[in-house]
């Protein structure tokens, strides 16, 4: 819900525990938001968990009580930063876009031959004949995917910041 997105975007501004060493990204500002003994989001963590767990449980036809959030982090991605091809741990992973400036979303329309993926997220799926699936997400989009899916996030050239949070969920 967009209200939760706005509240979460404001809350992540106070994140101050660097998490770069735990992540694959070539992104300067990556911070821990939540893990078993740490919660930077206060009361927002429950509605965030409920949203994610509800989606996971529907896919696997199980109860949300069978879901567990292991970690949650925020990426403040700037010009020329990127996430190389990687996957995650757990059953599901997600990325929730708190802010994607229009400049980033429109870069892929450029006439440059490399522009088809600029600023996008790309998944490689063995479930789709090993096809690469490129998405150009917008603010408030939540992408939920199997943790084993290889994916990458391409750099963009605009002098703006994309804010996203990601995490890993295990379903028992």
**Arithmetic mean pLDDT:** 91
Strand order of the largest sheet: 2-1-3-10-5-8
Instruction: Write the element-wise H/E pattern from the N-terminal end onward.
Output: HEEHEEEHEEEEE
Residue share in β-strands:
35-45%
The number of strands is 10
**Class from helix and strand fractions:** alpha+beta
With helices defined by DSSP (H or I, 4 residues minimum), what is the helix count? Answer: 3
Radius of gyration: 16 Å
User: Distance between the terminal alpha carbons, to the nearest Å?
Assistant: 26 Å
Helical content class = 10-25%
- Pick out the low-confidence regions: none
Q: How would you sum up the major sheet?
A: 6 strands, antiparallel
Shape descriptor reads globular
Structure overview:
Helices cover 19% and strands 35% of the residues. The longest helix is centred in the N-terminal third of the chain and has 16 residues, at 45-60. It has 172 residues and is of the alpha+beta class. The protein has three helices and ten strands. It has helices at residues 2-11, 45-60, 102-107; strands at 29-35, 38-39, 67-77, 83-86, 92-99, 121-125, 131-135, 142-146, 150-153, 162-171.
């Amino acid at each position: 819900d967009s209200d939760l997105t706005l509240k979460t975007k404001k809350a992540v501004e106070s994140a101050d525990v660097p998490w770069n060493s735990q992540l694959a990204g070539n992104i300067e500002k990556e911070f821990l938001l939540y893990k078993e003994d740490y919660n930077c989001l206060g009361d927002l963590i429950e509605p965030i968990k409920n949203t994610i767990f509800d989606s996971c449980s529907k896919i696997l036809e199980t109860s949300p009580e069978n879901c567990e959030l292991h970690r949650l982090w925020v990426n403040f991605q700037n010009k020329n930063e990127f996430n190389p091809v990687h996957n995650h741990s757990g059953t599901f992973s997600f990325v929730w876009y708190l802010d994607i400036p229009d400049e980033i979303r429109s870069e892929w329309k450029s006439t440059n031959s490399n522009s088809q993926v600029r600023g996008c997220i790309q998944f490689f799926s063995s479930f789709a004949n090993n096809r690469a699936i490129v998405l150009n997400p917008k603010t408030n989009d939540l992408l939920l995917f199997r943790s084993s899916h290889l994916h990458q996030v391409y750099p963009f050239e605009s002098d703006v910041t994309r804010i996203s949070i990601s995490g890993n969920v295990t379903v028992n």
